[in-house]
Amino acid sequence: MQTGFRKILMWIGAIIVIAGCSNSATEPVGSTQPSSASGGQAASSKANDGEAQTEITVLSWKFDPESDLWNNIVSAFNEKHPNIKVHAVNAPTSEIDQKITSMIAGKQPLDVLFTDSTRNLSFSSKGLLEDLGPYLEKSDIDLENDYYVKSLSDHMYQGKLHGLPILNMSYFVFYNKDLFDAAQVPYPTNDWTIEEFRETALKLTNADKNQYGYNLRPWVGTHFLAWAYAMGGEYFSEDGSEALVTSPGTVAAMQFLKDLVYTDRSAPAPTAQAASQAGGVAFESGNLAMNWSGSWDIAGTEKTPSKWAFNWGVAMPPKGESGSFPIVISNAWGIYSKSPNKDAAWKFIDWWMSDEGQMVLARNGEFPSKKNIALEHAFTHLDEETRSTVFMTVDQGVSRPTQFPAMPRSETTFGARMEEVLASKNSDVAAIMETANQELNQLIKDIAAGK
Prior knowledge:
The protein is α/β, with parallel strands linked by helices. 41% of the residues lie in helices and 15% in strands. The protein has 17 helices and 13 strands. Helix 9 packs across helix 10 (248-262).
């Protein structure tokens, strides 16, 4: 294993130990259900060259087994590993846990799982994911030097790595250049401030045209935290043992977002009723000047025609007293702990981390985790300024505090309080944040107790 990566594992593992961790059937979509493998038996047959062929089953919510992309993925993989047959099973992310349960109960084959931070904690705490450390030790993968690893904590559990991040996603501000031009407002720069952002949102709001300057997102980790961190706020203590959403900066961030809706009226209220009244305000509709979203949203703009019928650009999140905080997350592949085909499963994951696998992502509008492939091949249809900003967000971005077991469930708990704040102009931000803090602290205690 690379020395640098061992240091990363030890560092993240130390944080997790301090925080305290606890363990708390439909037919597959795609190719026909393999008949040569069920339960714990490895699937094998004879390939055309006479060598034994292993079949692995991979489960994800991202890759549709009926799409041209998946066919291209399998074709590229089989050029290097012709004796491994890849069988895809797809399910919506909200149904992944149920899908795994039904597959295991039905003794259906399962070898590789697609994960993110939330899924990793859920899978790992149930003992469903293999520790990839021993595999990594024997590989040529140099995570620290060759890959973007700021969100590596998304795939750690109790000091062990349970998924290798194949792609990045960073979050920042998209803006509609045509609306800026029409209002004669200068484009945002990468060193703009929160005060400048607020003034810009006001200038780009036009009630007569049902046009708004900005659109709030109901995302805690990938939206709210960027504003809270910029204003000097905190979410958890350094060891994850305490919630700190009543810190002045965090409360100020929530008040700021509320003021955009009810004082400035530069953002529509994120409620079903308000969305209906707003007439479907959305970036793709051309009536939203600035939108918080992720690099994944760039996919589709490389096509002719582009998915957005207007000129657009991107900017770093505006700076507060503590700086600018793009949020970086990642998706990964992990190995099912009871897979009978772990060596073949690892070859599949190892291929995704290779130049060939990473090129597949780059060609399809994704943000590869391998630096050299991303820098040379990702988002090449963008102008240099836009492309440079996208890479700046991942270089300077921060991960959500996913090293703490309470983080995934906390987003649901805190998200409900965030919704309460933004649902009414009369909401008491300080009081609601105090309630949220109490609830998060109880959640931390429950998780530590194994609940």
